[in-house]
């Protein structure tokens, strides 16, 4: 791939994902908060629902959601934010999730352990005869089951309470398709859309998140055999490089080629299912 090819694709991808490199983060907070308030007013739903993991994405989105419902209550008194803790058994970074909730102060917090449901699904599949290549493959597939159990829990709460499910997808995850299709990728609203990972961190800091969470190493934490595996290790490229790619800065050619190949391979995740 030539330098010009990479340059052109950087521009195409940034436009597709609506990246805004120079955006003022305070303006972005206002704009995204106004978006959430508007959705509450126009959809007939009155709650926002979001899983809080202790990672920076859900901390940022949770802080935004709580601010939005507080402002929405002027015209919609029943507006509220329901945060959900969704551990798979014991969560190793439990303290981070608690710190996130301390900062967010959500109207309500529900804790649902997704372990029994996730384990029961894997066991039922294996009893039906499903086999895996090896233990690592089994563990990877189970990771996606966990992400989808979290989706089920959040949609059950949304269904019961008149809620809209918030997703935490942002441009750095979107370009890499780094989420579970119909798992954490399933949601009603995407308030962090278009932000680089750095902008998500800036937003969390601006909204009052503690430094430990603002600077926390991102992890999907889905694999039991590799607990707390960092996203960067899983992706094989750093968020700094992904952010530079998205903002049109120069990136090592091998990083650019990996990002472009992953963006192409995961196009199906950013589109509606194909039809005949
Ligand atoms: N070209 C194509 N057109 C249409 N569908 C296509 C396809 N290629 C694969 N597929 C289908 O897509 C499905 C696989 O997608 P999916 O189930 O998502 O699975 P997959 O992309 O294999 O795995 C999810 C990845 O996202 C990561 N993740 C998940 C959740 C959260 C986070 C996080 O950062 O917190 C990260 C996770 O660690 C893992 O690396 C399969 O059904 C496959 O056949
Ligand atoms: N243990 C958990 N409890 C509650 N929600 C979770 C948990 N793990 C994942 N989620 C949900 O899935 C989303 C996707 O996870 P992801 O790891 O991308 O985001 P994060 O943990 O908020 O931030 P980071 O990407 O920096 O780790 C989270 O934002 C959160 O809404
Ligand atoms: Mg995480």
UniProtKB/TrEMBL annotation:
Reactions mediated catalytically: deamido-NAD(+) + NH4(+) + ATP = AMP + diphosphate + NAD(+) + H(+)
Protein name: NH(3)-dependent NAD(+) synthetase
Binding site for ATP: 51-58, 168, 197, 219
Residue ranges the record marks as coiled coil: none
Keywords from the UniProt entry: ATP-binding, Ligase, Magnesium, Metal-binding, NAD, Nucleotide-binding
Origin superkingdom: Bacteria
Record note on quaternary structure: Homodimer.
E.C. designation(s): 6.3.1.5
Residues binding Mg(2+), per UniProt: 57, 173
Gene: nadE
Entry keyword Magnesium: yes
Top EC category: ligase
Residues annotated to bind deamido-NAD(+): 148, 181, 188, 268-269
Free-text function comment from the UniProt entry: Catalyzes the ATP-dependent amidation of deamido-NAD to form NAD. Uses ammonia as a nitrogen source.
InterPro entries tied to this protein: NAD/GMP_synthase (IPR022310), NAD_synthase (IPR003694), NH(3)-dep_NAD(+)_synth (IPR022926), Rossmann-like_a/b/a_fold (IPR014729)
Organism (species): Halomonas litopenaei
Pfam family, one: NAD_synthase
Domain NAD/GMP synthase as annotated: residue spans: 29-273
SUPFAM superfamilies: Adenine nucleotide alpha hydrolases-like
Pathway: Cofactor biosynthesis; NAD(+) biosynthesis; NAD(+) from deamido-NAD(+) (ammonia route): step 1/1
Family: Belongs to the NAD synthetase family.
């Amino acid at each position: 791939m030539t330098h010009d090819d990479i340059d052109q694709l950087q521009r195409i991808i940034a436009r597709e994902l609506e990246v805004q490199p120079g955006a003022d983060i305070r303006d972005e907070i206002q704009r995204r908060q106004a978006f959430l308030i508007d959705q509450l007013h126009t959809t007939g739903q009155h709650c926002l629902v979001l899983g809080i993991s202790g990672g920076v994405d859900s901390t940022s989105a949770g802080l935004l959601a709580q601010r939005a419902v507080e402002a929405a209550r002027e015209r919609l008194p029943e507006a509220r934010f329901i945060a959900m803790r969704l551990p798979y058994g014991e969560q190793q970074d439990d303290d981070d999730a608690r710190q996130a909730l301390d900062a967010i102060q959500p109207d309500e917090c529900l804790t649902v352990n997704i372990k029994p449901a996730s384990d029961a699904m894997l066991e039922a599949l294996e009893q039906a005869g499903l086999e895996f290549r090896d233990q690592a493959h089994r563990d990877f597939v189970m990771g996606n089951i966990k992400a989808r159990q979290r989706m089920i829990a959040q949609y059950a709460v949304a269904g019961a309470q008149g809620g809209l499910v918030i997703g935490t997808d942002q441009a750095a995850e979107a370009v890499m398709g780094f989420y579970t299709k119909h798992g954490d990728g399933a949601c009603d609203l995407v308030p962090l859309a278009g932000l680089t990972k750095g902008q998500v961190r800036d937003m969390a800091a601006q909204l009052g998140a503690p430094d430990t969470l603002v600077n926390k190493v991102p992890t999907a934490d889905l694999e039991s055999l590799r607990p707390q595996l960092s996203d960067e290790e899983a992706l094989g490229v750093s968020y700094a490089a992904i952010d530079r790619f998205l903002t049109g800065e120069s990136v090592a050619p091998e990083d650019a080629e990996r990002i472009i190949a992953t963006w192409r391979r995961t196009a199906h995740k950013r589109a509606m299912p194909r039809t005949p």
